[in-house]
Amino acid sequence: MRCLSCHKLSWHTFCKSCQKKILQPSVTKRMVGSMEVYSFFKYKNIEDLLLTKHTPQGFKIYKALASFTFKPFMKSFLLHDPREIYVIGIDENVKSGYSHVSLLTSAMKQKGAKVLHASLLAENLVNYSGKSLQYRLENPRKFCYKGLSNIDAIIVDDIITTGTTLKEAKEILEKRDVNVLFSLTLATL
Question: Quick check: 115 and 109 in contact, CB under 8 A?
Fold first, then answer.
């Protein structure tokens, strides 16, 4: 197998050298309304990797990115917070044979953290890619939540641009008595 970045021989999706040079997360915090959103990368730094999300190769890339970022984050978070935490992915619809958001949430499953797969799905499947804030506000996702109530949860998505999706998701979850602690994204624009 070869490293997907430098193409040197590697047993892993990304060789150790590329993991250190390219894939070292730099966590940033952003506020969306009253919700904290933590992102591991700037979009421009991993854009080529993110654009693979609906390709067969994207499965390996997103799984690797999740293991470098979401998994250790959750492990560290649980060391400092003994509550039972639930992880809710935004719109874990399957495209091209897998859900890229589901790969991110799956990496967070650990003792003390349960993943509620496909519990928050959009009824409006509009594509926001490259669309304006006005367009996003005029075409809400119309989320339907079919998960547990009275829980503490972390919301997960791949990218944050304007924050409208995360804000709408939080509002729907709170109406169902879900205490949203914060949100995690792979990248921020």
Answer: yes
